[in-house]
Amino acid sequence: MRQTFSGPSALSGDRALCNKTEKSRVSEQTSDKARNKNRAANQAAVELLETNYPQAFNSAQPKPLKIGIQEELVADDKVSRGKIKRALATYVRNPRYLQSIVEGAERVDLNGEVSGQVNASEAEHAKAKLAEYKQRRVERQKEQRKQQRVAEKEERLNTKLEALLAKTNKL
Question: Residue 47 has what pLDDT?
Fold first, then answer.
């Protein structure tokens, strides 16, 4: 005996799940756009420092910066305070910069001249930050793979459901 579905579809729960998934994708895209916009502004601020102070700032081969370099940058008055803060925050969180923070490494001032050395606790902090970044990246990759598997499963299920509906509608 064949059953026909009348009234609300038995698939409404699946549709609600799909709608929820679609809404979360839209919000993720919106947050990704904002994140990319911030990244671009951060990178522009770093490039501004690299242009004005090439002896101290080089993203390709960063050197440990002098403690208190922010005050020197503000006093020099070539770059606005907001851009200085944004640029420094971005620059010192860069994994390449953190890798340059090893015990005994020479710190540089705005002119590229030696102005102190990295101590053991600073080197340990940089090493811990690198490990934290690596852990976050691993977790993010796991989550992306999980989301991809869920999306693929949803797609397979939707394809099967559509085929089933098409088959039941023919009968």
Answer: 95
Distances (CA, A) of 75 to 36, 66, 67, 110, 147: 30, 15, 15, 11, 48
- How many angstroms separate the CA atoms of 154 and 29, rounded? 19
CB contact at 8 A, 118 and 102:
yes
Dihedral sign (CA 71, 75, 78, 79): positive
* Matching residue, tokens 């860069």: 94
Q: What is the pTM (predicted TM-score) of this model?
A: 0.67
First to last CA, the chain: 12
CA distances from 21 to 33, 150, 152, 166 (A): 18, 10, 13, 24
DSSP annotation of 88 reads: H
How far is the C-alpha of 114 from the C-alpha of 125, rounded, in Å?
21
Retrieve residue 106's tokens.
């020479």
